[in-house]
Sequence to fold (123 residues):
Amino acid sequence: MELLRDLHRAGWQDLRQSGSHGPGHLLYDSRTNRLTGVVDFGSAGPGDPAIDFAALSSAPEPFLAGLAWAYPLAAQVDDRIRFYRGTFALQDALFGIEQGDETAFRAGIASYVDCRARGGCDG
Fold:
């Protein structure tokens, strides 16, 4: 609930977000050390870009440094990035329930239990 109050106080409004970005959706050329493309915009639409930043937070550090330079907004939404990262394991478990995939459900729950045991699930 505090997150929602913070969003309201900051005057947050929906921006464009991909809704499914993670390192697996980035095309990278290791010879030139450059990002060459981004794929999968099937979930794109209005929303909180902090979701995309959270999904990308598992990318290698040089990429994240470049992202922070190119998108100063990322530094402004750090609390929301941590919040969304903390939901990923439960989202995986929910996906397993919705799809009737017990393996996905168990993997999501195991990941959540593991991160809670380490003291938190914010990445």
Summary: The chain has a mean pLDDT of 78. Strands lie at 15-17, 26-29, 34-38, 45-47. The radius of gyration is 16 Å.
